[in-house]
Q: What sequence folds into this?
């Protein structure tokens, strides 16, 4: 009886191993650093530079297929910075002009009151009593002279419509006159009636 001898097992065929595909390395975000710098520019008031850098960051990040958030945030903040500065400058200019207008109106008002008080003094001094016929008549008396007005004061004119920087005196008749000046805040003439006068229209 023959013995069973183990049969040799066939060796598996050699299969060469395929190289494992390598994961593509993440592309660097070329706009990252530029985006940070553009963002910083918004806080140091260099908004035009920040806008340019933020746009460059967005373009570079787009090419690298990376996040564009830094560039977008920087762009928004820098644009808001410019808009805010424009608004603040406009408000400052308007406020400054308002202060200048009020100061000039106050000076015009003071000059008009001075002319009116001198006209009243002339009315008391002159015989027969009457208001000065014109500005030259104020110089007849020391107490009514307008020469004390500062040389840089507003202009005082006879019988003209009041305009900015001009105080007007006009006699309606011997017993009435008016002094007027221009109020810049209301853009209207302010009349100081003397004697029987009541306003520009009644003179």
A:
């Amino acid at each position: 009886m023959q013995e069973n001898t183990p049969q040799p097992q066939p060796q598996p065929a050699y299969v060469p191993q395929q190289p494992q595909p390598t994961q593509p390395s993440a592309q660097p975000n070329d706009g990252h650093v530029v985006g940070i710098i553009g963002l910083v520019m918004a806080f140091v008031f260099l908004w035009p530079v920040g806008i340019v850098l933020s746009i460059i960051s967005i373009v570079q990040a787009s090419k690298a297929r990376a996040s564009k958030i830094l560039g977008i945030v920087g762009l928004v903040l820098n644009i808001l910075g410019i808009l805010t500065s424009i608004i603040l400058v406009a408000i400052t200019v308007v406020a400054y002009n308002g202060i200048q207008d009020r100061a000039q109106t106050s000076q015009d008002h003071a000059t008009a009151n001075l002319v009116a008080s001198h006209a009243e003094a002339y009315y008391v001094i002159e015989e027969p009593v009457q208001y000065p016929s014109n500005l030259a008549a104020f110089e007849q008396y020391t107490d009514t002279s307008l020469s004390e007005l500062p040389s840089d004061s507003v202009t005082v004119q006879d019988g003209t419509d009041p305009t900015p920087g001009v105080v007007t005196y006009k006699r309606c008749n011997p017993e009435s006159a008016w002094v007027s000046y221009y109020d810049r805040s209301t853009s209207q003439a302010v009349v100081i009636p003397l004697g029987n006068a009541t306003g520009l229209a009644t003179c």
Q: What stands out?
A: The chain has two domains: 31-86, 107-202. The mean pLDDT is 84. The first helix runs from residue 31 to 41.
